[in-house]
Specification:
By secondary structure, this protein is of the alpha/beta class. The protein is built from 18 helices and 14 strands. The protein has two domains: 141 residues, Rossmann fold (3-Layer(aba) Sandwich); 284 residues, no CATH class. 42% of the residues lie in helices and 17% in strands. A hairpin with a 2-residue loop joins strand 13 and strand 14. Helix 8 packs antiparallel against helix 9. The longest helix is centred in the middle third of the chain and has 22 residues. The radius of gyration is 23 Å and the shape is globular.
């Protein structure tokens, strides 16, 4: 069974006095339902489970009075022995809650009542064109958690890399000392594997148990197809084809030298007026993430982000690689990256940063200056360059040489090498990106 970080967050929620009902958002098939049911099994005497997607008739329970005693009575009549409500001992799980807006409205009343814990999960919450809005969004009456596919650290756990090993890597980072060669090589191998497998639970479990990459690829492409089906099935009619076109353009967008998202790459002559809503749909579904250009390299980063200048990355590196041509997985595992190498490793680092909860920023000027990512690290504005193997960081060095102009004095180069430091430039192996936690 895959170990997930969401479990610790669920336990922290359960141990919070006066806790509100919990909403867990995340893309389809990232493990929400399994994680919540496993948590419920271990921490509650009774679990009452409703899946509104599989059983639309359950919505009728919430179509009348939202008084809690009435809901409990209706569920008991509908589910019989599968609906035992005991104050403090029962958790109600409302799976795919976006398919029953009235159930989300009811969260306010569950919070006021306080006898039963409630968790709702949603894959397409807030996505334009999907379902109806609740009569009343329970503002202030719910806690929302974002869940992603497995991150790199969870992938390491799945591959039997224990906490002491990760602690050793952290000590190497903190002290600036090289990682022992045997461990360094093992981590390089695991990173390449994560690059192609990604973090979708079915793909990771299949990889861990069988190592059959053709089966992993089949699972990934099935997931991508299911996303495309959602776009056609649930989006508003006028947006259906545009959303799919935006989604399918992502590999082409990232393959360009200037990776800024361009609507003309989606379709010749396209404009933001025509396609901006379509791109937003994909982002709201948790499939992609945006990386905004900064007008200046200063904190706060969010305050200096340019709204209309951005790159787009897939939230999961494995799904991105599965969208590339056949044979790409094998090439990456062999270390042969060819023309896509920049796109693949930038998307990998975007995946790692996004799953850490970081917003993504980069820095580009028409003068030619370009830095892959800019983060807040140890309280400072820090440049991050990503190299598939090695490579120069001309733009970063230019910025570091003019601190009075750019207000930056620290930079990190991630690539295929061990730890080192040259002046203000810290070089790290790519696999250490997940350890850059300190804000």
């Amino acid at each position: 069974m895959l170990r997930r970080k969401i479990t610790d967050q669920l336990l922290a929620w359960k141990n919070t006095p006066g806790r509100k009902p919990l909403i867990i958002k995340g893309c389809r098939q990232c493990g929400k339902t399994f994680s919540v049911l496993e948590f419920a099994r271990k921490n509650y005497k009774h679990t009452v489970y409703l899946n509104f997607f599989e059983n639309p008739d359950y919505a009728s329970v919430f179509s009348g009075s939202l008084e809690i005693d009435n809901i409990v009575m209706m569920l008991s009549a509908l589910l019989g022995k599968d609906a035992v409500f005991e104050p403090g001992q029962t958790i109600l799980i409302l799976d795919e809650i976006q398919d029953c807006p009235e159930a989300r409205t009811a969260l306010k009343f569950f919070r006021i009542d306080g006898r039963y814990d409630v968790i709702g999960t949603g894959s397409l919450l807030g996505v334009k064109g999907y379902g109806k809005e609740p009569r009343s969004v329970p503002v202030g009456s719910e806690t929302v958690l974002e869940m992603y596919p497995l991150d790199f650290e969870e992938f390491l756990w799945a591959n039997d890399i224990a906490e002491p090993v990760i602690a050793l890597l952290q000590r190497s980072l903190d002290s600036g000392s090289p990682v022992p060669e045997a461990l360094h090589n093992r981590m390089r191998q695991l990173l390449l594997q994560y690059t192609v497998v990604g973090g979708m639970p079915d793909a990771v479990q299949t990889f861990v148990t069988s190592r059959q990459m053709d089966e992993v690829l089949r699972i990934q492409r099935d997931i991508v197809r299911s996303y495309e089906d959602d776009m056609v099935k649930y989006a508003e009619k006028k947006d259906k084809s545009r959303i799919k076109e935006c989604f399918q353009s992502i590999p082409r967008q990232l393959a360009k030298e200037n990776k800024k998202f361009q609507y003309s790459v989606v379709k010749k002559g396209s404009t933001s007026a025509k396609y901006a809503g379509s791109l937003q749909w994909i982002e709201d579904a948790g499939i992609i993430t945006r990386c905004h250009n900064l007008s200046i390299t200063e904190l706060p980063l969010d305050g200096n982000a340019e709204e209309d200048a951005f790159k787009v990355y897939m939230c999961d590196t494995g799904l991105f690689v599965s969208m590339l041509e056949d044979g790409t997985q094998f090439d990456i595992l062999q270390g042969d990256l060819y023309g896509y190498k920049g796109a693949i490793f930038e998307n990998l680092i975007a995946d790692i940063f996004t799953k850490m909860g970081r917003k993504l920023y980069y820095f580009h000027k028409d003068s030619g200056l370009e830095v892959d990512f800019v983060i807040r690290y140890q309280g400072e504005c820090t440049l991050v360059e990503v190299k598939a193997r090695s490579g120069n960081v001309k733009s970063t060095k230019t910025i570091l040489n003019h601190p009075e102009k750019y207000h930056v004095s620290h930079a990190i180069k991630l690539g295929d090498y061990n730890i080192g430091k040259t002046g203000p430039l810290l070089t790290l192996p790519l696999y250490m990106a997940f350890l850059l936690r300190s804000c």
